[in-house]
Design a protein that fits this description.
208 residues, mainly beta, four-stranded antiparallel β-sheet, 2% helix
């Protein structure tokens, strides 16, 4: 798959990969300090080896990919100054382009479906088609299959959010963080917002 991909100083920074049958969607990022080096999405046919390059345009740093066989491919985007240890020099080197979630068609056409200034690290679908989005500043967004708009499902979590994974029975999901441990959060099929009394349970012993 690597052959034909852009390289920076001989290296290809593989950010994420998801599979859609015989198609592999590969996300790369160029970590080149002081320069705007946008992420690139590649579509690879695993049978024929055909590789096509999709420029993401305004998307500077795509953090991860989400694929669902019913809803397609999504790109989760963070601001350029996402990493905490470079925030102090962002005015000199980095620009905040915002973040969010984009839907990507098979031909590479992008549509912004959720704009989040502080960025989105990950998103995931439950089996009923509900989309959960892990955003920075400790927020989980949700969009049920029959709705067009996202709502805040839970907030007040650790600032640096990472991945979302569901339990096998989908009664809870787990939200990991960058330095703040893991949260176990209940899934409510018939309610958009989690009741305040049991908003989340922190699991401090599972610290990244």
């Amino acid at each position: 798959i690597n052959e034909g991909m852009d390289a920076y100083e001989g290296m290809i920074w593989g950010e994420d990969i998801v599979l859609d049958g015989d198609i592999a969607w590969c996300l790369t990022a160029h970590h080149n300090f002081g320069e705007l080096t946008p992420s690139v999405l590649y579509k690879c046919n695993l049978k024929t080896g055909e590789l096509s390059r999709i420029d993401l345009g305004e998307i500077v740093i795509a953090r991860s990919l989400t694929y669902d066989e019913n809803y397609g491919l999504y790109i989760n985007v963070i601001p350029y100054y996402y990493y905490g240890w470079i925030e102090e020099i962002q005015d000199d080197y980095f620009v905040n382009y915002g973040g969010g979630v984009y839907h990507c068609d098979e031909d590479g056409t992008l549509q912004l479906i959720l704009s989040v200034e502080n960025g989105v690290s990950h998103s995931a679908f439950s089996t009923d088609g509900t989309m959960y989005v892990s955003a920075d500043k400790g927020i989980i967004y949700i969009k049920q299959a029959e709705n067009e708009n996202f709502e805040i499902y839970v907030d007040g979590l650790f600032q640096r959010m990472k991945n979302i994974n569901f339990s096998r029975d989908e009664t809870v999901f787990y939200a990991t963080t960058f330095g703040g441990g893991t949260y176990r959060i209940p899934v409510y099929k018939d309610a958009v917002k989690v009741p305040e009394k049991d908003v989340h349970e922190h699991i401090p012993e599972t610290v990244n």
